[in-house]
Amino acid sequence: MASASLRVPRRVAAASLVGTTIEWFDFFIYGTAAALVFNKVFFPSVSPAIGTIAALGTFATGFIARPIGGAVFAHFGDRVGRKPMLVYSLLLMGVATVGIGLLPGYATIGVLAPVLLVVLRFAQGFGVGGEWGGAALMAVENAPDHRRGFYGSWPQVGVPLGLVLGTGSFLVLDLTVSEAAFMSWGWRIPFLASAVLIAVGMWIRLTVAESPVFQRDQETREASRMPVLQVLREHPKLIFLAAGSFVATNATFYISSVWLVSYATTELGYARSEILGANTFLSASDIPMILLLGLLSDRLGRRPLFLAGMGLLALFSIPYFLLVQTGVVTLFILGGLVVQACRSAVYGPQSAYFAELFPTHLRYSGASLSYQLASIVGGLAPAICGILVLWTGSLLAVAGFTVLLALISLGSSWAMTETLTRRLDGTADGPREVAAPA
User: Fold this and answer.
1) Can you give the pLDDT at residue 438?
2) Is-contact 195 98, C-beta < 8 A?
3) Which of 22, 185, 232, 424 has the fewest other C-beta atoms within 10 Å?
4) CB neighbours of residue 419 within 10 Å
5) Average pLDDT of the chain?
6) How far is it, in rounded angstroms, from Cα 92 to Cα 75?
C-alpha cells in the first residue's frame, strides 16, 4: 500500500496523465487526418502534392498558436493558479476538436471550409499551448524532491498515449470501413468521439487540488503583474537555450508521426495500415522509455540524458532515413525505436528540468514559453520536409535537416546547467534525498 506521502503525487500525476492524453489525442488526430484526408476534403482543387503540403500547412497553424496560448495561459497560471488553466485548456481543445469533426468540406461550402479549418486548428493549438505547462508543473510541484523526474514524466506519457489512441482509431477505421466511407464520414468519428473523452477528463481534473508549491509562494510573495514579460526580461537566455534543447525532439516527433505517414504511403510503397500499425506500436513502446528515463534522471541528472539523446540522434539520423527508404516495415520500426529512445532521453526528464530552471512565480511562464517556442519548428517540420523532398527529390535532404536540428539541441543542452539538486521552493541548492526506487 502506498504511503500517505506518495498518494497525492501519484493521484496528481495520474490526473495530469489522463488530461494530457485526451488533449494530445485531439491534437494528433488532426495530424493523421491532415496526412491522409484533408488534402482531398479541403483542398481538392490543387494537385495531390500541393494539397498535401497545404493540409500539413494547416497542421502547422496549431503550432503557431501554441506559443500564444502558452503565453496567455502562463500569465494566468502564474497569477491565479495551475489548476484552473488545466480545466480551461481542456475545454477549449474539446470544443475545437468536435467543431472540426462537424465541419463541411470544400465541396459543400467552398473556400470557407479550409478557412474555418484553420480557425479551429488555431483554437486547438491555443488550448494545447496552455496544457503542457500546467500539467507538468502540477506533477513536478507535487512530487518529492528525489522523484521529480519520475513523476514529471507521467504527463509526458500523455503524448505517446494520445498518439496510440489517435493513430489506433484511424487504423481501426482503415480496416473496417471502405475507402469511400472513410473519406466521406469515417475520418470524422475520432473528432466527434473526443467529446466523451473531454467530459471524463474535465471530471478528473476538477477533483485535483492546486499545487502546494504555488500556494506557499502566493502566501509569501505578491504575484507578478506580467509574469510572461518579466521572465522574458530576466531569463531570456535560459528560455532560448531550453527551447533549443527541445527543438529536435519536438520536430523529429512530428516528422515521423505526421509527415512520414503521408510520404511512406504515397512514395515508398508502404500500405496505409502498415504505417498506422507501425506508428501505433512505436508510440506504445515510447511509454516505458519515457517513464524509465524520467526515473533515471533522478539518479544521473537531467543534462547528461539530454546530451546523450541528442548526440545519438545526430549520429543516427542518416541511417534512420536509409532504413525508412527500404520500404520494409520491420526496418522502419527498428529505426523508429532508436530515434524514440533518443527523444525519450529528453522528453522523460523534461518536465522536471524545465520546472527546476525557473522560480515558482515565473515557472509556468518560463517553462511554457520554452516548450512552445520549440514547438513552432516542430509544427513547421512536416511542411518543411515536404518542400525539401519536392526540391531535391531525395529523402536524405530530410535526414540532413534532422541532423541540423539535433546539433542545435545538442549545443543548447551543452550550454545549460544541471538542476538535479535544486529545490523548487526557491531556497539554495543543497543536500537532498538520494533517489529511491519508484
Assistant:
1) 39
2) yes
3) 185
4) 21
5) 85
6) 17
What is the average pLDDT across 247-267? 88
Measured CA to CA, the distance from residue 92 to residue 98 in angstroms comes to 10
How would you class 197 by CB atoms within 10 Å of its CB: exposed for 0-12, middle for 13-18, buried for 19 or more?
buried
Q: Whole-angstrom Cα distance, residue 295 to residue 421?
A: 15
Neighbours of 411 (CB within 10 A): 13
- Contact criterion met (CB below 8 Å) for 211 and 77: no
pLDDT tens profile 208-223:
777 778 778 777 776 6
Cα angle vertex 341, ends 276, 161, to 5°? Answer: 45
Residues 198-209: tens digit of each pLDDT:
777 777 777 777
One-letter amino acid of 381: A
Question: To 5 degrees, how large is the angle CA 192–CA 198–CA 200?
Answer: 125
What is the C-alpha separation between 363 and 82, in angstroms, rounded? Answer: 10
- Model confidence pLDDT, tens digit, residues 272-293: 888 888 888 998 899 999 999 9
Across residues 295-319, what is the average pLDDT? 97
3-state secondary structure of 44: coil
Q: Length of the chain in residues, anyone?
A: 438
Which of the 8 DSSP states describes residue 255? I
